[in-house]
């Protein structure tokens, strides 16, 4: 299955050899419009790729030049809460590794646990807490499953993102992302717990992809776009509509950072 997807993607890329890939989270898919002469490959044409059923997730690979650099973007991801399979993104990441991707930047929409990190903010993930009770490497038979996560989030890519943020005058928070399984939003008590445990943001994705990326030897970094203050921090109830409506605001800030990152070749440094 993986070989078929790999062969098909290589054929469609027609010699384009991106070294970096981006996974676009809820409401962040607009970044693909900034790719010149995009090559679009629907997940449906790639055996093993997820059938994303979440609104706000398109489900296609879009490749081409972004800020002058060959890049591959994944618009749409599989979430654990869709089917209970934490490893649903494994075939995708294996194919990326297979085509020569060595650097991966993950993005997501998240709730802020910190009253000073408001909706519209962007947070560079420095570390995570896996609060889901599961792991995408459960069932992996080899000793390779014992992946070290001491430096899961690549120091070099993080530094490059920080430099790009600084150069463009874009505020970039840093913090710990806590993975809840979803699909419900958290309770106020869970958010108080998350804060005590050291989380800055909460969300329903990304962590399994980071674990799989490290398993496959990819260098990985991740950014959250804050769409809301987490449960109980305001009087309001949370909704997926709010996530979709608010994501483009922080998404535009993140796009500025990413454009500069690629344009200036900061990822290579
Ligand atoms: N919690 C979990 N996931 C989210 C949130 C939230 O508050 N906002 C956007 N994704």
UniProtKB/TrEMBL annotation:
Keyword set includes Magnesium: no
Stretches that traverse the bilayer: none
Keyword annotations of the record: Glycosyltransferase, Transferase
EC numbers for this chain: 2.4.2.1
Residues in the signal sequence: none
Domain Nucleoside phosphorylase residues, every copy: 21-261
SUPFAM superfamilies in the record: Purine and uridine phosphorylases
Molecular-function annotations in GO: purine-nucleoside phosphorylase activity
Pfam families membership: PNP_UDP_1
UniProt subunit comment: Homotrimer.
Role this protein plays: The purine nucleoside phosphorylases catalyze the phosphorolytic breakdown of the N-glycosidic bond in the beta-(deoxy)ribonucleoside molecules, with the formation of the corresponding free purine bases and pentose-1-phosphate.
PANTHER family linked: METHYLTHIOADENOSINE/PURINE NUCLEOSIDE PHOSPHORYLASE (PTHR11904), PURINE NUCLEOSIDE PHOSPHORYLASE-RELATED (PTHR11904:SF9)
Record family assignment: Belongs to the PNP/MTAP phosphorylase family.
Record's protein name: Purine nucleoside phosphorylase
Organism: Mesorhizobium qingshengii
